[in-house]
Amino acid sequence: MTYQVDAECYRIVEVKNGQYHTLFHGMPTEEGRRSRRLPLNEWLIAEEKMVSYGKGSPEMLSGFNVILCKSECEAYLARFKDYRKLKVVKCLAQELRPKPRANAEVWLARKLMIVE
Hints:
Elements: E1 4-16, E2 19-21, E3 27-28, E4 34-35, E5 37-38, E6 44-45, E7 50-51, E8 60-61, E9 64-67, H1 70-77, E10 86-98, E11 106-114
Antiparallel strand pairs: 1-2, 1-10, 2-5, 3-4, 6-11, 7-8, 9-11, 10-11
């Protein structure tokens, strides 16, 4: 069920060689490979599939993880104890729905554009 159609939001990305990348899972490319690189100012469509986060956890429809409030996203970023260079970036998102069982106010978006 979609709860919000369009939203300005924020996302945590990894910065590698000046480019933004997803933290964990890559997306399919036209060449048939997977890539974690996230282009700027381009609408991306999530690879939607049923996923679960651990044995015995309920399945949910995947999507792009976003947070609607910048300060909440920055607080969530502070939880990471990571060697990678991570950053909060501004995005536009469409077709959002709440992410079940999230540790913060995380939403799942079907469409995403990084504008920062």
